[in-house]
Amino acid sequence: MKRYFSITSIGDDRPGIVAAVSEVIYKLGANIEDSSMTILKGQFAMILIVSMDDGLDKGGFRGLREALGLHITVEELDRAQLDEHVVPSGTPHIISAIGTDKPGIVYGLSKLLSSKGINITDMSTKVIPGEDTPVYTMVIEITVPAGIEIDKVEEELSELGRELSVDFSLREVEVLGL
Amino acid sequence: MAILPVLRYPHPALRAKCKAVEDTNDEIRTLFEDMTETMCAYPGCVGLAAPQVGVVKRLFVIDVSRKIGPKKNHGLLKLLNPVITYSEGEKISREGCLSIPEFLGDVKRARRVILRALDESGEEIEVPAKGLEAIAIQHELDHLDGILFIDKVSSLGRNLIRRED
Ligand SMILES: [Zn+2]
What we know:
The complex is a heterodimer. By secondary structure, chain A is an alpha+beta fold. Helix content of chain A is 28%, strand content 43%.
């Protein structure tokens, strides 16, 4: 029976990190199932789900910590939980936001969404230089379940935007099956 | 009429350069009917190209009205030997493909196209298309040249992976 492991790694960005980490994964006999990698404030961050027919030797990653200064964690995932996971159904939408940087933007928005049962499926935020103060930008993808009035969500978003001095825009993602 | 099995990557038909249809006969018309029925068997599917059902010929069906209703499109189109004669603008949309299930990605394509093709009775027609219909036409036309949308993906709609129904 296949076993699944999560591997997360973060460290100062430089060429060769992906090669080094994937070499270890390959030599341990694991298979990369899903992965996402990005640079956050100069740190190269990786999240991978790998599968194995048997256990994963966590010790195999020790060398990477020393050689590349990566912070790596490896955890086994609960197979039963993976099998039972249900993808929330609904219509995909994107919310983008821009405003003056201040604490509580992500919290305010995510609280509004979760109170409506709207699932966040992807999110990326970045602080960029502004005219005189830093500017906060955000793009998030959400799944809006059937039965939710999107106009109502949009209204509440603009109300929240006024409170936080953030401009939110909400739009549906058109998905074409071809 | 029949629902045909849809081939999945890496079936070689999906990478083939399809051949022009020499003459429009009952065999082609039956294929069009079956492809239409196959497309309609998949909820949300608005286009299907012949190589996806293992026929390496230059033809496809699209029907964007299945998704957006009757406005701003031609409804069901059965097209042979299609050629884009004009295109303009850019539009990014999220595409999926029956031949690459459970994968969605954002692809940039022309916003408007004019297509010249033959209809199922062999008459030459011109189809000016915009928006989703233009996108669908370009996706299906790519299939006829063995090009898959994943060859053109600029970013993943990774969170929006469809479940197999
Ligand atoms: Zn396709």
